[in-house]
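Thread: Newbie trying to understand structure tokens

Hi all, I'm a second-year student working on a class project, and my supervisor (Dr. K.) asked me to get a predicted structure for one chain before our next meeting. I've only ever worked with sequences, so writing a 3D structure as a token string is new to me. If someone could post the tokens and maybe explain what I'm looking at, I'd be very grateful. Here's the chain:
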Amino acid sequence: DFGSLRDRADALGELAFGLAAELDRDTSKPERLNAAAAGFRAFTKYLQDDIDTYVAGHDLVLSQSAQMLRRDIVKSFEIAASAHRIQSARRAEAFFREGAAH
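---
Reply by user tm_fold:
Sure, no problem. This is what the structure looks like when written as tokens:
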């Protein structure tokens, strides 16, 4: 129901603030948050999919600005996910390269 969607959105907001605070606390190794950021993106995608299902199932019509915001959010997370996949592949290559050298 809609209340559950709002609760999940609020929870993601709290997680985002927590991740940002952690990064602000120690900026020396931002890569340590890669796994948390990847999980955050996945949870956000699941929430967006559920919101889309709710909107479609209740025959709601989003305003043009809400549609643009949704599109921007989805595109931003797709770009971030692509960047994460590239970074992960590079880390994996480096890991195996270092392992082969030992």
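A couple of things are worth pointing out once you decode it. Residues 64-101 form the longest helix (38 residues). Residues 27 and 41 are 21 Å apart (CA to CA). Feel free to ask follow-ups in this thread.
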